[in-house]
Design goal:
The protein is an alpha/beta fold and 288 residues long. It has 2 domains: 114 residues, Aldehyde Oxidoreductase, domain 3, CATH 3.90.1170; 158 residues, TIM Barrel, CATH 3.20.20.70. 40% of the residues lie in helices and 20% in strands. A 7-stranded parallel sheet has the order 7-6-12-11-10-9-8. It has a 4-stranded antiparallel sheet with strand order 3-5-1-13, covered by helices on one side. The protein has a two-stranded antiparallel sheet with strand order 2-4. Strand 10, helix 9 and strand 11 form a beta-alpha-beta unit. Helix 3 runs antiparallel to helix 4, helix 4 packs across helix 10 and helix 8 packs parallel to helix 9. It is elongated. The two termini are 32 Å apart.
């Protein structure tokens, strides 16, 4: 099933206008804008493809007549594989060239890094064990959340939370404003007030996690805890017949994702893919 464009035409047009607010001076001055051309994007190195649909639509919005997209977001591409091909006036191709290329490069970097963590987590699972969800945080570069979401999804991950309006996530910084006697009643009230939402509580250690679970927290988010702590908490929750999915945040990587899965974590929360190196795309533009 094709991926939908998470950036609409207005957003894609704004990206084009950012790069050429008054048009393409060089192409216009050379007088070649109406000459027919062809542009091809190739993978330079293996990657998980991401934002291919957005790049294709951007090229169409720039004025290309035909755009062929042989690789969908979420698919794997090997070195040298064709990612996009567009035909149209040289002015349209040059207008879209760098913005579409850069979008695909940065998105593929995020998607490829996400996929690596997803696969590492799955490698730590025993027979019949569900792999933990890899959830990327909202610590993307401000203004790029739709691109981040598209890339993370293409890599097989999900978004931890798209924004403050979406999820009930109680941090210690929230609880600092509550008196000790208010903590449990307020937590219970969260669940009653938004029954379709899970209540997530970030906890600093094992004991705080058990207290939060007893108070009704449905997801226990451990911050920078080693796999050994996760395993011990998994056993303690089972021994006390307490519900509570374990989410691990902070320092999740391909090196430890399998160990966290083996320890019983249900969610691996990470920002690491946002800082992955872009995956290069080579571009050829020529007369048609």
């Amino acid at each position: 099933m094709p991926y939908p464009c998470l950036l609409d035409d207005t957003a894609l047009t704004a990206l084009l206008q950012e790069d050429a607010p008054y048009g393409d001076l060089t192409t216009r001055s050379l007088g070649i804008g109406e000459r027919p051309g062809r542009m091809r994007f190739y993978a330079r190195g293996p990657r998980t493809v991401a934002c291919a649909e957005e790049a294709a639509r951007m090229i169409e919005l720039a004025g290309a007549e035909r755009v062929h997209q042989p690789k969908a977001s979420g698919e794997q591409a090997e070195d040298g594989e064709l990612l996009l091909e567009a035909h149209g006036p040289a002015g349209a191709l040059h207008l879209a060239w760098k913005t579409a290329q850069t979008l695909m490069e940065y998105a593929a970097g995020i998607a490829t890094a996400t996929r690596a963590i997803v696969e590492a987590a799955a490698s730590g699972c025993g027979p019949g064990q569900a792999a933990p969800v890899v959830a990327c945080t909202r610590k993307n570069l401000p203004g790029t959340r739709a691109i981040a979401q598209a890339a993370v999804t293409a890599g097989g991950g999900t978004m931890h939370r798209l924004g403050l309006s979406e999820t009930l996530l109680v941090f210690p910084e929230h609880r600092a404003f509550l008196a000790p006697s208010e903590q449990d009643p307020r937590l219970a009230a969260l669940a009653r007030g938004a029954p379709e939402k899970r209540v997530v509580v970030e906890v600093p250690d094992h004991e705080a996690a058990l207290e939060a679970a007893a108070a009704g927290a449905e997801v226990l988010q451990l911050e920078k805890c080693p796999p050994e702590t996760v395993a011990a908490l998994t056993e303690a929750l089972q021994a006390r017949d307490l519900r509570g999915l374990i989410a691990v945040a902070g320092g999740v990587s391909t090196e430890n994702a399998g160990a966290y899965a083996q320890a019983g974590a249900a969610v691996l929360v990470t920002s690491a893919p946002y800082f992955a190196a872009p995956r290069d795309v080579s571009v050829q533009i020529e007369p048609a």
